[in-house]
Write a structure and sequence with these properties.
This protein is of the alpha+beta class and about 425 residues long. It is built from 18 helices and eleven strands. This is RasGAP protein C-terminal domain-containing protein.
Amino acid sequence: MLQQISSGKIFDSDDIFLAPLNDYVFHAGKRFAEWFMQATDVEDSETHFGMDALDDHARTHKPTVYISPYELCHLHYMLEQHMDDMAPKKQGTLYDIMNDLGPSPFKPGVQLPKTTWCLKLSNRQDDLPQDSSAQLQQLVTDTKRLVVYIIKIQSGRHLQDIFDQPLEDPHEAQWVQLKQNEFLPQEDSSYHESLSQKRRFLKLGNTPLDINDLTFAQLKTITSRLVVHLGKFVDRITPDDNYQGLLNMIAEDITGKNTRRQTREREITKLKTTLGHLLTKKTYLSDQRQSYEDYLKVSMDVMAKKRGKKQRFVLPFSRQYFHMRNLAKQGMVPTFGSYKYTAKQLFDRGVILNLDGVDKKHYDRIPITLSMDEAGIINFEGRYANWSATSVHMDIQYEQLLQTQFEGVQMMTLLDGMVKVNVNLLIYMINKKFYSA
């Protein structure tokens, strides 16, 4: 019986035992439907839970859902079958998501995997939505403010009559006084100064319009054109009633100040909560970044020290042999090694692409030294008599080289822009000399 009443279906007329109850089922079904509508008439979830579009950006950990492909596709299918009931106006977030997803792959009888998946939910929009209706609403608000300025100085039978009235000298003088009161802060505080600046500038295009620079005649011209423009988009603003609808909107704003104040207080509370979440997320991400950097530094130190313990064989009486012997005499042998090449050797290997202002036939006269005394910091040094500085050297972090490679940069300059190198081959050579076992 409860099943029939809740579903609103009467019994089959052929059922001689239950058919007499159809009148009761019919009326009870109506009462049940009314009760059900009252029970489900609640505020939306965003208001109830104090959520907004910023919550996804402030959340440190994304929600996790465990669901099988069968359940996921079946849920998609059920929503698809009942979209006319769930979104009868064909608008809203759910309707937009269903349109983006397209038709469900689920069909009765189709076999789908039932293995459970772990899904981490993410925001379907990376950026905050840019709503054109919000821009229109801002334009309406600004226009109402300009209309209020005008009716403080001139009056008439209706708004169109005020726009058509001629100007007199006292009107300009009153406008100058109004601008001083409105746009120049009367109290010495950053809040009042900020509020005055916000009222003063009107964002109608790429460059904000400074209302303080306008004459009263210019103000009336701009305002009348804005009102006519809004009449094309806002139903309540129409020339048929001489734009009385706009005046009614201003009157509603004045009488509804208390309600708007309460709304703003709720929004401020919500924004403070969101700000707290963002600060928490900032701290979380900063700690995570520091952990990654510490781990990377420790790993690089371990790799460099492991490599530094092994003495690489140096061919006697070679350039590298005399280079290391000279460093040993001076007591300047780097902790993790030092390697000396000519620019020609590195050019032939593809590491060096070009030397600024040096002919290729002179590359064999330019020594280039790569050293590492501190883990993760590579020292480059080059010497050439015709350079402005005979010896040029620089330090570069290995992590910076890896970041450059990750960003897809193929070439970079070193030694004050004098040497152009291939990033990938340079990293390969550094790995081979300082980090490989």
